[in-house]
Each structure stands twice: as structure tokens, then as C-alpha cells.
Specification:
about 270 residues, alpha/beta, Purple Acid Phosphatase, chain A, domain 2, Metallo-depent_PP-like, Calcineurin-like phosphoesterase domain-containing protein
């Protein structure tokens, strides 16, 4: 495991993840960062820069150009390894896996060797201090990069991850994660688990746009990312990425909920 330290960050910190090749969403996030006056050194990405939408190369290039701190997600690790699939943790043969294949293959075709080399050097975790609290940043989990941890997951799952990070990196006050696509906060044994959500795909709540997180002196909050998804939708359609995630940008609903716990699935109408 490669753990990088950012030292002490002062002022607001913005954490986001899951651009997944959606350049319109990443552009909106960059505008929010600029309006808030947050320097690039205080912007942290939880990974999965590419992998679903139609502008993976552009998102990778922008992330590198703006010099955001990045924790490797499963997408970055798999692209760096020239692997045959995304490593997202979907059940074999599931609808989620079948719908994700096209986006993964598109990202794989449009990622050059220089980008893969950069991804290979990304850390598995980051640690930093902010306003008297010590934070770690991971993708899905520390024990497994593509681990799905949901708002209602058993407390023991959070404890396993927190214990593993603390064993490797020392005591923590908070953990910032991504991967599952749902932004939330939960406190476990006094440690805040903050999922920054995804900017590139809506959180399956029927509303367009994404989510990201911001740390201030008075604590952490989850913010909405509002943007026009039409350009990203059009780019997906023109690229043949019409397996359902294109429509998710417009409807705010995922094309399948088979990865969700039962209590989080949309109730079926009679």
C-alpha cells in the first residue's frame, strides 16, 4: 500500500470523486472550486476519473493539468495494469457488469501510455491534517479498493476499514471515501466516515447533477453539483455509450440498482 501525506492543509478543502469521463461535470466542479477560491493543493479526488462517460482522456488531462491530489480508484489501477475489466466489484454476469462494459472499453481505448504511467504512480491512500483533525482518503476501502460501503452498512464494516487505515497510518478523526456513488456522513467510534459521492453520475435520487464534499473550520458538508448534463449525454450517444448511464444523466436514476442494498432500492410501483 502506498500512503502519501499532504501535511497540514489550511482553508477550505474540497473532495470529489467519480468524474467517470463526464467532462461537463468536471468543468462544473472546477468552476465551483474557482468561485470558492480553493487552491488546487486543497482539492482531492477519490478516484475513478474515467470509465463510464464519453470523455475519459479529457477528464484525465484536466485532472492532471489542475494538479489535484488523486487517490487511485479501481479504474486507475485497472487502466494502469491494462486489465480486461474495470474491477468495480460488480457480481459476475450481473446487469451492472453488463451495462458497464462499454464504458470501460471506451476508456481503455482512449487512455494513452503516459496517462497509464501517471495512474500507476498514484497512492492508495492520502493523509492530511485540517483544523485540528487528521483525515485519510481512500477509494472504496483500504482493505479492498472496490469495497462498497453504504450509508446503512453494518458498523463492523466501517470499523474494519478504520482499523486497517489506523494500523498503517496512525490515529484518525475522519475518513473520506468514494466508489459507491452515494454521498453520506456517518460517525463510527468518534471517527467521521465521509463519502464524497460522485460528480459524474447522479446519486440515483431522481435529480440531475452530482455531489461533492467540503471541509471547513466548522466541519464537513455535502454539496450539490449543478450543471447541464446535455453535452455529456450527447457525447455518450454519439460515441455509442447508450447502455443506460447516458439516460441516468438526464433522469437522475441509475439504469440498474442490483448493487444497492434492498433498503436503498427504488420502491416498485404497483
Amino acid at each position: 500500500m502506498k500512503i502519501a501525506s499532504l501535511g497540514t492543509l489550511t482553508g477550505p478543502v474540497i473532495a470529489y470523486g467519480g468524474a467517470v469521463g463526464n467532462l461537463a461535470a468536471l468543468g462544473a466542479l472546477l468552476r465551483d472550486v474557482s468561485r470558492a477560491g480553493v487552491p488546487a493543493g486543497n482539492v482531492i479526488c477519490t478516484g475513478d476519473i474515467a470509465g463510464t462517460c464519453a470523455q475519459p482522456a479529457e477528464c484525465i488531462a484536466a485532472t492532471r493539468a489542475y494538479r489535484h491530489h488523486v487517490v487511485a480508484g479501481n479504474i486507475e489501477r485497472q487502466l494502469a495494469a491494462c486489465a480486461g475489466e474495470s474491477g468495480a466489484g460488480f457480481a459476475p454476469g450481473s446487469l451492472s457488469m453488463r451495462r458497464a462494459v462499454a464504458g470501460w472499453r471506451f476508456a481503455d481505448r482512449h487512455t494513452d501510455a503516459a496517462a497509464r504511467d501517471w495512474m500507476e504512480g498514484l497512492p492508495d491512500a492520502l493523509v492530511f491534517a485540517h483544523e485540528g483533525r487528521r483525515w485519510a482518503v481512500v477509494h472504496g476501502g483500504f482493505t479492498r479498493i472496490a469495497r462498497y460501503i453504504w450509508p446503512g452498512s453494518p458498523e463492523v464494516l466501517f470499523e474494519q476499514e478504520i482499523n486497517a487505515i489506523e494500523a498503517a497510518a496512525g490515529p484518525l478523526d475522519g475518513v473520506i471515501a468514494g466508489h459507491c456513488g452515494i454521498a453520506f456522513q456517518r460517525v463510527i467510534r468518534g471517527v467521521t466516515w465521509l463519502n464524497a459521492g460522485s460528480i459524474g453520475i447522479p446519486p440515483d435520487d431522481g435529480r440531475r447533477g452530482g455531489r461533492y464534499a467540503r471541509l471547513d473550520a466548522d466541519g464537513a458538508r455535502i454539496l450539490r453539483l449543478d450543471y447541464d448534463p446535455a453535452p455529456a449525454f450527447a457525447a455518450m450517444v454519439s460515441s455509442g455509450l447508450t447502455q443506460g448511464f447516458d439516460l441516468a444523466l438526464m433522469t437522475g436514476h441509475w439504469p440498474t440498482e442490483d448493487i444497492l442494498p434492498d433498503e436503498m432500492k427504488t420502491p416498485r410501483r404497483p
